[in-house]
Design goal:
CATH architecture: 7 Propeller
Strand content: over 45%
Number of helices: 2
Number of strands: 31
Number of domains: 1
Helix content: under 10%
Shape: globular
Length: 421
């Protein structure tokens, strides 16, 4: 784990706030670091663990999303990489598998379920390699409590290419969906992989037509920038990662919606990033805070909106690491003041994976005990993808061994008072 003085310079300060002691660190860029406190009123408690029920390799947990009593899980390796998605439901007895969906006539290698998203009574799942890429919209029938596919979105504009990765990342925000094609070429016939985010609306072009509203590009015609490899949306803000920019140094871009236009606000670029860090591989935005991961360097950069500007405020690392190849920040989810971080390669060379929990406070970022499987099973990749809704976290472990096959699992965690055990 790199401990760069340009990222973290520690000046330890101890505040005694009876009955607990909070230790935090000052950083060059301001008073925010990682607070260490193991005696808190709240904790993250592991809840239900869900398997696919199938017996073949699945990659179950490749993508995850959760909202309210519903969750959706992608298994893009199902049936020779055709892919599948599973809807999970939380009833009185906890989380259970509800339904499984595949795409009719799906091609070998389509990888349906590579990305999933859920918002209200709508859900979405992508198949980036089904032809030129497709995204499928599902709607909840509240009377029967079942989900049905209602629409397919394909890449608009020039002839779709299978290498565009249309649907690599998706984000459903109410009735607007953001779909990335990070390998999209802005010039036909080129192989620059600049990347594009396509924005579609439920009633654009007609009721339930899910037509295209607009598209976003970074404005940088840079080879292999892979703009849109990660997407996060909060109200009118759209945050997009471009981990391939500048020889895989990476970058991230912030946009704000104004009607049917998305205007560039600023580039959020972490101090000290360097070639190979792949900054922007994962990102999240909520309220006045944006987070961008540089998972090859095991660091998450924190930006906050203050007096009209987005300012870099902190860089989050963890002391609970295995080695420099953990890929801390390979996935992240942020909502309110809670942050979940995946480190899918934790435990190299066994790649068991781990998930880390943080809470934003007035004094900095509080780190809770992290979770990893205490098992002899190798290559679980716990933390491959994470999702967060209110006090519920969902974590994928795509290679978790079940029934003697590596089908994958998902883990629910709940943020509760300690006395609620």
């Amino acid at each position: 784990m790199k401990k760069s003085s340009t990222i973290f310079k520690y000046t330890t300060v101890i505040f005694i706030l009876l009955p607990v002691i909070i230790v935090f660190s000052c950083k060059d860029l301001g008073l925010l670091g990682v607070i260490e406190n193991r005696a808190l009123e709240y904790e993250w408690k592991k809840g239900d663990v869900i398997y696919t029920g199938d017996i073949l390799d699945e990659n179950f947990g490749r993508s995850v999303a959760v909202e309210g009593n519903w969750a959706i899980v992608g298994a893009n390796q199902h049936s020779s990489w055709r892919g599948a998605i599973y809807f999970l439901y939380k009833g009185s007895g906890g989380w259970v598998r509800k339904t499984k969906h595949t795409i009719s006539g799906g091609s070998i290698g389509a990888q349906f379920g590579s990305a999933v998203s859920i918002s209200g009574n709508y859900a979405a799942a992508s198949a980036p390699y089904e032809g030129g890429g497709s995204v499928y919209i599902y709607k909840l029938d509240t009377s029967s409590n079942t989900w049905s596919q209602i629409h397919e979105i394909t890449k608009p504009g020039d002839a779709p290419e299978s290498g565009d990765d249309f649907g690599y990342s998706i984000f459903l925000n109410n009735t607007t969906i953001y779909i990335s094609a990070p390998s999209d070429n802005h010039t036909n016939g080129s192989n620059n992989f600049e990347g594009t985010i396509f924005i579609h609306g439920k009633d654009t072009g007609g009721t339930d037509s899910w037509g295209m509203i607009n598209s976003i590009t970074s404005g940088n015609i840079s080879n292999a920038e892979k703009f849109g490899s990660s997407i996060s949306v909060y109200r009118d803000y759209v945050l997009a990662g471009a981990p391939g920019a500048s020889s895989d140094t990476g970058s991230s871009y912030l946009y704000e919606r104004a009607g049917n236009n998305w205007n560039f606000v600023t580039a959020l670029v972490g101090t000290g990033i360097s070639p190979g860090d792949e900054y922007g591989n994962a990102c999240a935005i909520s309220g006045d805070t944006a987070l961008i991961a540089a998972f090859k360097d095991n660091i998450i950069y924190v930006f906050e909106y203050n007096k009209g500007s987005w300012i870099e405020k902190a860089a989050i690392q963890t002391e609970d690491y295995y080695d420099d190849t953990d890929l801390f920040g390979s996935s992240l989810a942020f909502s309110g003041n809670l942050l979940i971080v995946g480190a899918r390669d934790y435990g190299e060379p066994d790649d068991i994976g781990a998930v880390y929990f943080f809470r934003k406070t007035t004094y900095g970022w509080l780190e809770f005990p992290f979770y990893t499987n205490n098992t002899t099973s190798n290559h679980d990749y716990l933390g491959y993808h994470v999702a967060l809704d209110d006090n519920t976290a969902l974590v994928g472990a795509i290679n978790k061994e079940n029934y003697t096959n590596y089908t994958g699992s998902v883990y629910f965690f709940n943020y509760v008072r300690k006395e609620e055990k």
